Each structure stands twice: as structure tokens, then as C-alpha cells.
């Protein structure tokens, strides 16, 4: 809606109404189409890059002391150099070994695994939604680029094919907007 809009009066073809003249109008419109297709291609490249980057922010697993136990950064008594206390922790006053409560340990570990699975599931759902939305934008921009490409003479396609591509682009874009608004309404109702 930039350069080509300035030539609208010339493009209407009204007698004795001309701002730029026929040759200048044709040149300005070609430049407008070049800028438009350049903008669309930059948008496609940017969205493809965002799709790749969406996978880059995966949840990082824990590391170091307490890995896989859910203890976080707690240090064990043995790591603190108190080995004798670590040996005696498992014994009662009578010197007998305490029976480990295996069921409690099993429940604790299951809770840790379940929490991590849920985090991973949420991350996958977020990435899937992001990639789906960006993929739609890429397809929409690719379809939109048919108009300036046809105007520049890069593709020999008819007006009907361009119209079908624009219909598809409009449908894809409206579906993305519809889903985004639906998610916003659902979030407001849930709050």
C-alpha cells in the first residue's frame, strides 16, 4: 500500500487525470512489485528461522549432584566430608539397618518422572503450536508472492491461478487469526 497507491489515479485511466504519466506509473508499479516480493521473501526467511529456533529452547535436563532424584542442588553428607555420619545415618540406635521404605521411594521417583513428562508434553505442545502458526505464515507469504512475481513477469500464470492462490492465502491467514482469538477468549474465560 505504498508506492503503487501513489499511482492509483494514473491506473484508473480517467481521461485528463494523470499524476505521473504512463511511463513513470509503469516504472513505479514495477518497483513497488519488486519491494513487495522482497518483503514477502524476507518474511518467509524470518519465519523459517523462527521455526528452527522454536526447537532450540527445549527444557534442559538437570545435571550434577542429585541428577534424576529431584533433590536439586542439595549436597550429600559424604560430599561434605562427613563420611562417618553418612555411615551411621542408615542405622538405628540398636545398630540394626533400617528398612528402606521402598514404596515411598518409588512414589517419589514416579512423581519426578510424571512432572518431567508433563513439562516435556507442555513444551512439545507449545512448539507444535508455534511451528504450525509460523508454517501457515510461510505458506501464506509464498502464495502472496505469486502476485508480484506474475506482475514482474517471472511466472507465466493466469489471473485465475493468482485468484485461487489469494483465496488460499486469505483462508490460511484467517484461520490463524481465528485460532489465536479463540485461544485468547479461552484464556480469559479460564482466568
From TrEMBL:
One Pfam match: PEX11
InterPro entries (UniProt xref): PEX11 (IPR008733)
Residues annotated as transmembrane: 35-52
Any Gene Ontology biological process: peroxisome fission
Record's compositionally biased regions (Basic and acidic residues): 81-94
Location in or out of the cell: Peroxisome membrane
Entry GO terms, CC: peroxisomal membrane
Major place of residence: membrane
Positions of the UniProt region annotated as Disordered: 65-100
Keywords carried by this UniProt record: Membrane, Peroxisome, Transmembrane, Transmembrane helix
Protein name: AoPex11B
Species annotation: Colletotrichum musicola
Higher taxonomy: Eukaryota, Fungi, Dikarya, Ascomycota, Pezizomycotina
Amino acid at each position: 500500500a505504498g508506492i503503487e497507491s501513489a499511482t492509483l489515479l494514473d491506473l484508473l485511466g480517467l481521461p485528463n487525470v494523470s499524476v505521473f504519466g504512463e511511463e513513470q506509473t509503469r516504472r513505479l508499479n514495477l518497483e513497488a512489485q519488486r519491494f513487495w516480493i522482497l518483503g514477502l521473501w524476507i518474511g518467509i526467511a524470518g519465519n523459517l528461522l523462527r521455526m528452527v529456533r522454536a526447537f532450540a529452547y527445549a527444557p534442559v535436563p538437570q545435571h550434577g549432584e542429585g541428577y534424576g532424584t529431584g533433590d536439586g542442588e542439595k549436597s550429600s553428607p559424604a560430599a561434605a566430608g562427613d563420611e562417618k555420619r553418612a555411615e551411621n545415618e542408615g542405622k538405628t540406635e540398636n545398630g540394626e539397618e533400617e528398612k528402606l521404605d521402598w514404596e515411598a521411594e518409588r512414589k517419589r521417583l514416579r512423581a519426578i518422572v510424571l512432572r518431567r513428562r508433563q513439562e516435556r508434553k507442555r513444551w512439545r505442545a507449545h512448539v507444535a503450536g508455534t511451528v504450525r502458526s509460523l508454517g501457515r505464515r510461510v505458506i501464506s507469504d509464498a502464495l502472496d508472492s505469486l502476485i508480484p512475481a506474475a506482475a514482474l513477469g517471472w511466472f507465466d500464470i493466469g489471473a485465475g491461478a493468482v485468484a485461487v492462490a489469494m483465496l488460499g492465502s486469505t483462508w490460511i491467514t484467517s484461520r490463524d487469526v481465528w485460532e489465536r482469538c479463540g485461544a485468547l477468549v479461552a484464556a480469559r474465560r479460564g482466568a
